[in-house]
Each structure stands twice: as structure tokens, then as C-alpha cells.
Amino acid sequence: MKSRRYIVINSVIVGLLLTFCSQIHVFAQKQGINNTVLPTTKEISETNARLPVLVGEGTMWTKVEYDKDTKIQRFYYRFTGNVDKQAIRVAQSQGKERMKNALKQNPRSMARINAGMTYVYIYCSKNNTKLYEIRINKNDF
User: What is the reported pTM?
Assistant: First the structure.
């Protein structure tokens, strides 16, 4: 039987991805940003202005970055409590496939990947120590 933390962590991963994609898309539409499929400085700044946000039980979305030169977008998350090490290992090993599946459901995300963007999801402990990261780019599809 899967632990409650395992289920929470996996559902949070997918939820975070879908939440971010929809927020960026809505913001871009409101601002009339259609000149590029890649994130703009304004999109990233507006998103960061709303952070940190609790996105799931025990998980805080703290920051997003985009590097235009490398086309890497980084999302930072922090667990707010103690997280079971086994649950982290499971989330890390299964998280990439779950996130890829979520990205496939979002046309804007796939357009960004096809334009050469890499998504990087960085997960940290409550003390802000990096626990793991998940990296997804065009070669993963």
C-alpha cells in the first residue's frame, strides 16, 4: 500500500505543473503577450510576485526563473515539513514520467518544449537544502 506522503507528493507534482502552466498562459493572454511561445521577463516577474504559494499539502512553490540564453525554466519548491526519505525516492523516480504526461496535456508547454525550452523542477527540504531535481526537454519525448 502506498504511503499517504507518497500519494501527496505525486499528486502535488502534477498539480504544480498544471497550475503553473495555466497561470502563465492566463497572464500572457491578459497582457496581450503572443509574440513568442517562450516565457517573457514580464511573465516570470508577475508569477514571482504571487509567490510563495502553498500548492499542496506540505509543498510551497517559492520561485520561478527563466534563462533566455539557455532556454531553461526553473521552478523551485520547498517542502514545509519533514518528508519521508522513501517517499522522496519514489517521487523522484516516478516524477519525471508524471510530469511529462502532464506537459503533454498542455499545448503551450509542448510548444515551448518544441521551441527548445527545458523545464527544471527543483525540490528542497524545509531548510532549503536541495533534495532532487527533475529535468525535461525535447529529447524526453
Answer: 0.76
